[in-house]
Amino acid sequence: MKYLSFYVLVIPNLILFILILLSGFLVKNKVNKQKNSLSIIDQLNHYSKLSGINTGYKLLVSLLLLIFCLLNGNIQVSILVIFITTFITVYFGKIDLSQYLKLFIIPFSFLILSCIAILLNFGTHLPTEVLASIKLWSFYIFVTDSSLLNSCTVFFRVLACISSLYFLIVNTPVDKILACLKHYHFPNVLIELMFLIYRFIFFLWEISIDMVTAAKLRFGFDSYPKTIKSIGMIGSNIFIVSFKKAQKFYNSMESRLYNGSLNFIFTESKVTPVEVGLFIFGICYFSFLYYSFQ
Fold this sequence. Notes:
Helix content is 74%, strand content 5%. The protein has 294 residues and is mostly helical. A three-stranded antiparallel β-sheet has the order 1-3-2.
């Protein structure tokens, strides 16, 4: 259990440290909205009308869509995948579109930075195919046809992959996903890490929001130096709190006769003939799209 405590302690803190650095300026002005937007996944996947569908079926569909998006290099097909997964989630799952789009805020910010890095090129000489350029001293910052195409391809491919994963996450509670993975003999260590880290991230985020609120009430975000200092103090305090909570979590699990394995109740609905037909149709349709754009 020691290695579990280490990963449960370290990984959520690394993720939260990045999130705090990225969204510290936004959080100080929109504390309540950010608090609701991060915990929205747990709310949506319990109220989704598609949560009763066979978890293994949704897991297989999501993984196949993810593999297809990774292999596909066509922008139009990526947009089609985004539209299909969003339409199914919003229309059939009865998920509010605005709440669903909030889930893309954090990955979208990382994606934009990555695409900008792909888009911009640096050099002392301009190539023949240049769409735009800026000269800074002795070198140029320029955009070419290929860099624009590559950045757009990566942008929509990543969005399609995220939409494929959200199709599973938004429509299926996490405990059902983990129970399904355990039923199909997924390694217990990875399942326990996934469960504990997932819960710990949300728990630490709630604590960080309270700390941001306290810093805001003490005028900790009035200036840029104060903001940097407040963010650093929040990060260090989260590390201390997470260390204490990890030990309390372990003690609570031991008091409930934890024997090295987390148990999940696995009750699964049957796959209907309509779902099987849709699955076969989807396989044929996306296979046709894949070979058509090769």
